[in-house]
Design goal:
Rossmann fold; Quinone Oxidoreductase, Chain A, domain 1; 335 residues; alpha/beta; seven-stranded mixed β-sheet
Amino acid sequence: MRACLLYKSAPIETRPLVFTEIERPVPRPGEVLIKVSACGICRTDLHVVEGELAQRLSPVIPGHQVVGTVEETGGDVEGVSVGDRVGVAWLHTTCGKCRFCLAGRENLCEAAEFTGWTRNGGFAEYMTAAADFVYPLHAEMSDVQAAPLLCAGIIGYRSLRLTGIENWAGARIGIFGFGAAGHVCIQAARSRGADVYVSTRDREHHQALAEELGAVWVGDTFDMPPEKLDAAIIFAPAGEIVPAALASLEKGGTLVLGGIHMSMIPPFDYSLIYGERVIRSVANNTRDDGREFLAEAARIPIKTSVQTFPLESANEALTALKNDAIRGAGVLVIS
């Protein structure tokens, strides 16, 4: 099968992903073999490729927003059948028995495996996945449209939940960084009745898309929104945004950090967090997050803005992502 392999982390400009032929994987008991049709690209893929997330498997096939069809099962599989169209997300497996799993917080599992980082992912024609961790996909969503929902969408959904907002009607929500996650998150927030304020540096792609998707205000990354926000989410992996986002919050507001990696957060005055403002991170996702979000996305319905690339152009796709040159989400199409 064709696949993109990462042998050693390196800047994406050096083209570290090797497009080659390898043996097709064989599903083990409890796993399914998936013929991949589309795989979204994500900042986390870039963090894996460039080494901000230390490489834990070499070589590794990145990609954790996977859409495909079950082609084979490895035995001891229930609830998933050959021919089913499924999605695979970042959380690959959990142990099911640590204190976090037993408390319903499997996103914090002490022995979790992650698609495209510790286990091979979807930058390939085929991949294996644990049957208990794949998601059935609604027929209304095309493969390419569905792919970005499996990380950008799910993490955006969890970020909205962690804001603590209960009465969404008229709530003022800020989004800092407006790539794949932001452009999905705004649709979910607006469908609930919130007013969304977007701060992002790219005018040509991201600011224009935010306006099209109904943001009540759009500005540059460090511009102050015209009103204090009830909550804000940072999707950009830039720690220097944190003080600016805190300054935009109303008293009692929550700032959610929506990425798995972020650069250093600079010192800031206590006054920015005083008034019972809260900073909290998002760590991974639970399967319930995925199921609930995909159902909500189908109801809204969420429409993703997608730029497609062939599998062999994965290096170019991630370079475009790094340079903010993708309007919405990038997706590799495997034909």
